[in-house]
């Protein structure tokens, strides 16, 4: 408390991110920081089935009765704005035990499952987003140069503010650049443990939003912010190691992949059709997840293949963190804790079952005779597959799948028949922090 007071903090926010991918928070005055840890702040169980448009998708097990608590660890609090600190919260019952729909606790259990197998997992994240005007329209109307020095320097004051705010918040940003899409920006984060990586994703969204606001901008984390525009990804990178070293290098397999590493990649690829509803299941996800968009619309893997769902990065001098597997099809509508749990969990499932590494697709899958067909990405197919998946229930629990399916079916009912332009406008800021 003294450290935060010295930094000018007056209010502390504790947040949870729901199955719809929206981050929600409660605040307390700094003097109540200890209460936020010991007893937590009360929330309705319906927080777990809040929808992107503020609807509530009640389920047979979640209704109007009951009470849960958001509890934070004060040591995780970070200054995110003048007078404001933020900490990731755990959703618990009144006794302090993890609630069945606490996504952060679920990811922590998956992380412990890796440790129980003698494996260390590191996760890194890349966040793509779209800068927009305060009225919700495009931030700029002039020509855009993808990755251009002009387009980035035109936003230099914002980018410097972003870097300064991130450093103040203890956020380890490795790279910032303007992206291919008009007014698009990408931030890459350093790899860390799984829970810390998901926490960092939420912190980055907050820091981006606050820094942008000081420069007359808003930030959209919609999978597609404007009809016909480039999509925003939320790529996750995974590396695994055991007592003998990394699983993705040092072996006799392709690019040095060891047998257990091949099984991990196989597990991820095998589970993609079942888990797509976790990675990219929103009403806007299918607009991005198409062949040709570098979004990973095909369930395959390949070395530096940006059209494959799993892009493999080999251990070379150009990869300072070593070999890793990148899951490209994740978008920002995904809950980052659930997406990381699904990614890591499916890799562990592959290791447990000693799955064989499938044949690499080294070229564009659309031009390969051996590549599988693109994934079925329409929201109805994606949600149906998630709902009936034994793999998803095994990795993420039936209760969690029920909640994810409920909020996505609400989206289907509300936006399923609407034109894309109308849906992108309605949900442009749904996942912003």
Automatic annotation (TrEMBL):
Pfam families in UniProt: Gln-synt_C
Any one of the GO BP annotations: glutamine biosynthetic process
GO molecular function: glutamine synthetase activity
UniProt keyword terms in alphabetical order: Ligase
SUPFAM superfamilies for the chain: Glutamine synthetase/guanido kinase
Boundaries of every GS catalytic domain copy: 103-433
InterPro entries tied to this protein: Gln_synt_N_sf, Gln_synth/guanido_kin_cat_dom, Gln_synth_cat_dom
PROSITE patterns: GS_CATALYTIC
Record has Kinase as a keyword: no
Family: Belongs to the glutamine synthetase family.
UniProt protein name: Glutamine synthetase
Lineage: Bacteria, Bacillati, Actinomycetota, Actinomycetes, Mycobacteriales
């Amino acid at each position: 408390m003294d450290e935060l007071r010295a930094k000018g903090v007056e209010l502390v926010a504790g947040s949870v991110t729901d199955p719809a991918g929206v981050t929600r928070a409660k605040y307390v005055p700094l003097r109540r920081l200890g209460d936020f840890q010991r007893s937590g702040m009360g929330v309705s169980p319906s927080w777990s089935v809040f929808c992107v448009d503020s609807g509530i998708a009640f389920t047979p097990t979640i209704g109007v009765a009951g009470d849960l608590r958001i509890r934070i660890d004060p040591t995780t609090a970070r200054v995110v704005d003048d007078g404001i600190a933020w900490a990731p919260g755990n959703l618990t019952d009144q006794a302090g035990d993890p609630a069945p729909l606490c996504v952060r606790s679920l990811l922590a259990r998956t992380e412990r499952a890796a440790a129980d197998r003698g494996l260390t997992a590191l996760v890194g994240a890349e966040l793509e987003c779209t800068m927009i005007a305060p009225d919700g329209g495009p931030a700029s109307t002039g020509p855009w140069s993808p990755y251009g020095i002009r387009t980035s320097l035109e936003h230099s004051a914002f980018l410097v503010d972003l870097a300064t705010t991130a450093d103040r918040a203890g956020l380890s940003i490795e790279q910032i650049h303007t992206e291919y899409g008009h007014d698009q920006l990408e931030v890459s984060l350093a790899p860390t443990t799984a829970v810390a990586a998901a926490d960092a994703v939420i912190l980055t969204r907050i820091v981006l939003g606050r820094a942008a606001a000081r420069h007359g901008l808003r930030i959209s984390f919609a999978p597609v912010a404007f009809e016909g525009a480039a999509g925003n990804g939320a790529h996750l990178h995974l590396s695994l190691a055991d007592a003998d070293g990394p699983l993705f290098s040092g072996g006799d397999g392709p690019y040095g992949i060891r047998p257990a590493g091949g099984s991990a990649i196989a597990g991820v690829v095998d589970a993609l059709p079942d888990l797509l509803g976790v990675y990219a299941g929103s009403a806007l996800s299918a607009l991005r997840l198409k062949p040709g968009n570098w979004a990973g619309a095909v369930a395959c893997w390949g070395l530096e293949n940006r059209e494959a769902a799993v892009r493999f990065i080999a251990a070379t001098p150009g990869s300072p963190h070593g070999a890793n597997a990148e899951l490209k099809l994740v978008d920002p509508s995904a809950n980052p804790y659930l997406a990381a749990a699904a990614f890591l969990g499916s890799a562990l499932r592959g290791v447990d079952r000693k799955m064989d590494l499938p044949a690499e697709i080294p070229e564009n899958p659309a031009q390969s005779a051996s590549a599988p067909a693109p994934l079925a990405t329409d929201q109805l197919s994606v949600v149906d597959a998630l709902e009936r998946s034994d793999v998803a229930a095994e990795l993420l629990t039936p209760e969690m799948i029920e909640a994810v399916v409920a909020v996505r079916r609400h989206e289907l009912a509300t936006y399923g028949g609407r034109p894309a332009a109308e849906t992108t406008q309605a949900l442009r800021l749904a996942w912003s922090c």
